[in-house]
Amino acid sequence: MTVFLVGAGPGDPGLLTARALELIAAAEVIVYDRLIPASALDGAREDAQLIYAGKEGGGPSMPQGEIEALVVEHGVAGRAVVRLKGGDPFVFGRGGEEAEALRAAGIEYEVVPGVTAGVAAPAFAGIPVTHREAASAVALITGHEDPAKPESALDWDALASFPGTLVVYMAVRRLGEIASRLLAAGRVADEPAVVIERGTLPDQRVCAGTLATIASVAGAEGVRAPAIAVFGEVAVLGERLRWFEGRPLTGVSVAVTRARAQASGLASTLRALGAVVVEAPAIRIVPRLGRLPDLGRYDLICLTSANGVEVLFSGLASRGLDARALAGARVAAIGPGTAAALAEHGVVADVVPERFVAEGLLEALAHVPVRRALVARAAEARDVLPEGLRARGAEVDVVALYETVAEPLADSQLAALRGADYVTFTSSSTVRFLFDSLGDGARLAARLVSIGPVTSAALRERGVEPDVEAERHDIEGLVKALVADVGVRWAGRP
Ligand code: SAH
Q1: Of 88, 92, 146, which is best to mutate to test ligand 1, by the most ligand atoms within 8 angstroms of its C-beta?
Q2: Atom of ligand 1 nearest to the CA of 95
Q3: Would you tell me which of 330, 396, 480, 481 could form a disulfide with 470, CB atoms 3.0–4.6 Å apart?
């Protein structure tokens, strides 16, 4: 069995490599460090053994010898072991020592490089560590050497004359000392210097100064580990090339309550806009595939959600059928998400109303003759659509494709949700189940964002008024409304 020494990148979950995700998903044992992305283990198997080897709140980390023994032990036992480290495993990660221990024990290993903080944090601060005009070389340096070493292995005099960018890891505590040694060794006092704290994470901070001032600037700003220091001409480019801060949702925390299986699109859109996403899935979708009616009987088939489309098509597939089963009918979809799900199965919806609610679909169908309609939807849905169609003389069957049930939330998730700036609701069931788990009379300090009138009504039923309601009742519309609200409310904030 192979042990995998895997880099998890500097913190942004998007910087985990494809290989890392694949190995995490397959691992039986994961021995992980502190500085890995918070969500890095989300894709691990439910039965995987997760072993924390990092520091707990400033306490001592597991001694290196113990970590090596642990990895060897599980490797010998023939289990699929991932040793997951922040950044790159071979850049100040002691991955080399672990590889040696594995080799000595005769265990095969594979090294999966990661995006290293010394390159990624500057990049997220708009600083290219090399530049055709400004730096033809870059040195990766540790600011914190093994305290057991009798004397520094680092020749600061030599580093001062290094012709390029100096990138210092673990620099915070000794920043003043490092800067003075470089100055004393002849590096120029007004050389640009930058410290990047929690690089690539939503709360990344950048402090800029010169070699002479950076230690006092960083001290005044209270910069803490993890941070990377950059010395060199390139450091000044961040002023012009910065891109990460100042995005529409930078620093805003937003809770996503939709089902885990659907949350990723919304969560990644929000993250890309700079938000800190709190994942608090209040609901789960349970397919309820009973008997499917013969679709050939209908001249109109209405689908009300992407979930419904997925369940319908897996139902068709299990009966050896495909999109052609819908061939005889007009297909109507509420909302572009539903239409997109249909398109993935090769069906272009004939009717997509402008307003993404049942009433909108009825309007859109006003001049469409309907004799027999099928409404395929969630078990607990409003009856506006079937009743409206019946009122026009159509014969209507309703099939419940899935049920929405409560997803229990951990205390930590509820606490994070309570601390969020915004809570998003994408359906009335997210409202119902979330307020159920919050308990009676629950109040949220956050601003509440509703996807549309039906969800807003569910909020009012719980005695709360939505602060923001999307104009377009889909995910895109919801994000747009949230961004606009942040723009108005946070205007003028630093
Ligand atoms: N193997 C890691 C480095 C581990 S040493 C890598 O390749 O990135 C730990 C140091 O890395 C921290 O003290 C800090 O200097 C740096 N570091 C790790 N994550 C960081 C981040 N998100 N932002 C800034 N520095 C970070």
Answers
A1: 92
A2: 1
A3: 481
